[in-house]
Amino acid sequence: MAEGLHGREKLVFLETFGCQMNENDSERMLGLLKGLSYTRTKDPSDADLIIINTCSIRDKAEQKVYSILGRFKSLKKERPWLVIVVAGCVAQQEGEKLLKRAPHLDIVFGPHNVHKLKELLLQADSGRKVVVTEQTGEISPEEYGIEPVELEEKAFVSIMRGCNNFCSYCIVPYTRGREVSRKSADILSEIEGLVEKGIKEVTLLGQNVNSYGTGGGGDDMSFPELLRKVCRVEGLSRVRFITSHPKDISDELIRLFGEEPRLCRHVHLPVQSGSDGVLAAMGRGYSVEYYLSKVWLLKKLYPEMAITTDIIVGFPGESEADYEATMSLLRTVRFDNIFSFMYSPRPGTTAAGLPDQIPLEVRSERLQRLQEEQKEITNERMRGLLGRTLDVLVEGESKIDASELSGRTSCNRIVNFPAPVWLQAGPGCLIEVTITEAYQNSLRGEVRAAGC
Ligand code: SF4
């Protein structure tokens, strides 16, 4: 590797697919690579190191990895010192098989081995092919708390990893292992360190944060107790968490929204289906009635609360009546937004072996109808905010119009706004914006007051 690099700045190209946990893993990789004086490049053809942090939640995500790897084959010919790495859930799922499929690969490592990146690069430096998919039942201190590099006003903080739920369609328990919680003291000191660096908002991450402290690791602190402590860290403006499992969301957690003003008014509560039969086949562990009881309690206590969800259509055996039950759940709950997907059989999951697999064209047609239905509901929810004055945490330049600024409400909605001349507000500043326009994915408004 050193040969092509003498005296020249080392460049890394890193592409991340999938969930916030992968985003956080990539941030940790960049932190480690900074220590090896790598700088990030957006152009893979300039890179000395290429890392693809992969997602395996659906077949489409997995296929994307192979097409990208195909593209890098020629690069390797031109730049023999180039090191190509596949990380994340496809790396964990496929391991050695990836090297056979893409012989130009150098390193393959799973999500439990992010903190070993430096030593894996050294091993590859000696010309060896490296595959590490070891999964451990505990979280070692050096795994987290790695100096972040590219953060401004907000940060992800993993509080645990893995999942013990084994929903019948899901590959995550196989690629991310059993639930292990981090020690609350490690989490709180990481957050205090982030606040010292100017971070104003943290998002606590876990496949199922509500079971924090119940699996391995941790130190007998429940999720609501941890969340209350995090909300009291001096200097923080906002706290978010993702993802909750409906069967584990406690009334104690729901009450916390009324007691902790820094806790953002948004809950992502994946329901997956509106049919009890499908929920049972998915192994979700709750009924539609139970799910609705939690939603109605949240809406009754906090009418301004934003509730979003995940939905899978076309699960094996899903009848038209099951599907209609999902559509009626949408019309009843009126989610602020949904993340919706066609069922995709995943290797090693029980659902992949179920009879009555639904044909692709039926799954795709159901997904389209569902998304059209939700589009109307989301627009209606967004229009409901016209004329309201909302707290917005400034994030920086608007992605729609670079002459404007952008930020997010407590409900996680994007707001774009022209910056009045008197406004001295940069990323991390809390301001008040009156909403004047509403679109499907964002709002627009005028600044009323600034808190910085
Ligand atoms: S709760 Fe279910 S869907 Fe979510 S990560 Fe765990 S197994 Fe997968």
Pick out its properties.
452 residues, five-stranded mixed beta barrel, Rossmann fold, OB fold (Dihydrolipoamide Acetyltransferase, E2P), binds iron/sulfur cluster, 22% strand, alpha/beta, 13 helices
Your description of this structure?
By secondary structure, the protein is an alpha/beta fold. Among the domains are: 10-132, Rossmann fold, CATH 3.40.50.12160; 389-450, OB fold (Dihydrolipoamide Acetyltransferase, E2P) (Beta Barrel), CATH 2.40.50.140. It has 13 helices and 20 strands. The protein has helices at 20-34, 59-78, 89-94, 96-101, 117-125, 172-175, 184-196, 223-231, 251-259, 276-282, 288-301, 320-333, 360-383, and strands spanning 10-16, 38-40, 49-54, 83-88, 107-109, 130-132, 154-158, 160-161, 180-181, 201-205, 216-217, 238-242, 266-268, 306-313, 337-342, 389-397, 405-409, 414-417, 430-438, 443-450. A hairpin with a 4-residue loop joins strand 19 (430-438) and strand 20 (443-450). The longest helix is centred in the C-terminal third of the chain and has 24 residues, at 360-383. The N and C termini lie far apart (47 Å). The model has no long low-confidence stretch (mean pLDDT 93). It binds iron/sulfur cluster (SF4). Iron/sulfur cluster is lined by residues 163, 165-167, 170, 172-173, 207-208, 245.
